[in-house]
Design brief:
single chain; alpha/beta; 4-stranded mixed beta sheet; 17 helices
Length: 381
């Protein structure tokens, strides 16, 4: 048994195509993800909203300016206001998108914007909310500005607070980045690519596909013993490769995937077993052509990864809305969801459910494979 395991490990090390797909390809893809996502959070940083302010009189201007100057978001002024502009120039700047809106200051505020989308639409929504809150509190603010101007900042702060009857509760002590969902799916793909190793083991034990399989089928050594030893060595070998890819993402790319680290490593191990057993099952399907089995394996892996959200981040949500059963049996979705649940929940119930389902799938794939390969006979060897 030990002899078979040792020689199997040496043979796996010489399989450069499997080393590429299981180890190098996920690392290369992770580097592309890092390059693509590196500037997204910076792009989402708040910037002051440029507006033109048209005031009816100096008193209205003074009151509005004292209020707007005290409004800040992320320690930045909410408004980048131009008070020294004519209405005609303001209209031109609005049409050329140099400003996001025109605020008319009188007894109440009035807002003029253009119909835009994207970032401009977001800024317009903020302006609309600001004008609405200002008008709702204008009488109080004006009275305080006239009678007790030293208290204007306190009044503005109080009136700007949202009243809520809900209490925020964090499920975890850390804050997970939404973009890490792509790395969860990347790890799922790496684990499923171990199916190529399981496929190779199945083919090497069939006499009509390889010389090695031919020798094994006529040798007196117990075939089940050989298969179990090879599956075990393949599991250890591929698990090490997956841990290496996992470590690269954490250590080199600085992506925090260390939520409940021991459970994450367990998820990698069970997911590797699922990938290996899936490949072993596909390799055991009766077929006269090796290429058909390999093409089927790639098709199953990539379809599974696509439905879990590797290519389109929201695909898993779409599947959940229209056919949630697929997410419950899709190996890639279960693997990525196990990492997601570790990052977002202190309660590990959802994680255990994912791992349990993966383990059940592994058992089903393995038993089915042995049923397909047991006592197989050949008319000619």
């Amino acid at each position: 048994m030990t002899h078979i395991i040792n020689y199997s490990l040496k043979r796996f090390l010489r399989k450069k195509d499997q080393l590429f797909w299981i180890l190098m390809f996920p690392i290369i893809l992770a580097l592309f993800f890092k390059a693509a996502f590196s500037g997204i959070n910076d792009m989402e940083a708040f910037s002051s909203i440029p507006v033109a302010v048209i005031c009816e009189n100096s008193d209205a201007k003074k009151t509005f300016k004292s209020i707007s100057d005290n409004l800040k978001t992320e320690n930045k002024p909410l408004l980048k206001a131009d008070y020294n502009i004519s209405e005609a120039d303001a209209e031109k700047k609005l049409k050329s998108n140099d400003i996001s809106g025109i605020i008319y200051v009188g007894d109440t505020l009035k807002l003029k914007v253009l119909a835009n989308t994207g970032d401009d639409n977001t800024k317009q929504s903020i302006l609309d909310n600001f004008v609405g809150q200002y008008n709702a509190n204008s009488s109080i603010i004006k009275d305080v500005a006239k009678t007790h101007p030293e208290n204007i900042e306190k009044v503005i702060f109080t009136s700007s607070q949202d009243i809520t009857y809900n209490k925020e509760h964090k499920f975890v002590s850390k804050s997970a980045d939404n973009l890490t969902q792509y790395y969860y799916n990347l790890l799922a793909m790496a684990c499923l690519f171990t199916a190529l190793c399981g496929l190779e083991i199945a083919i090497n034990n069939q006499g009509n596909f390889s010389d090695l399989g031919l020798r094994r089928n006529i040798s007196p050594v117990n075939k089940l013993k050989i298969i179990v030893a090879e599956l075990f060595s393949g599991l250890i070998f591929n698990y090490v490769l997956n841990v290496m890819a996992f470590s690269f993402i954490i250590v080199v790319l600085k992506i925090d995937l260390t939520f409940h680290l021991p459970y994450a490593l367990l998820a990698l191990f069970v997911s590797t077993m699922t990938g290996m057993s899936l490949g072993f099952l596909l390799g055991s399907i009766p077929s006269k052509k090796r290429g058909i089995k390999e093409a089927l394996s790639i098709a199953v892996i990539m379809t599974s990864c696509f439905l879990s959200g590797l290519m389109i981040g929201t695909m898993r949500i779409v599947v959940e809305e229209h056919c949630p059963f697929i997410n419950k049996i899709n190996p890639a979705a279960l693997i990525s969801d196990s990492f997601y649940s570790l990052a977002n929940y202190n309660d590990l119930g959802r994680y255990y459910q994912d791992i349990g389902t993966l383990f059940i799938l592994t058992i089903i794939f393995t038993i089915s494979s042995f049923l397909l390969t047991r006592r197989k006979k050949y008319a000619s060897i």
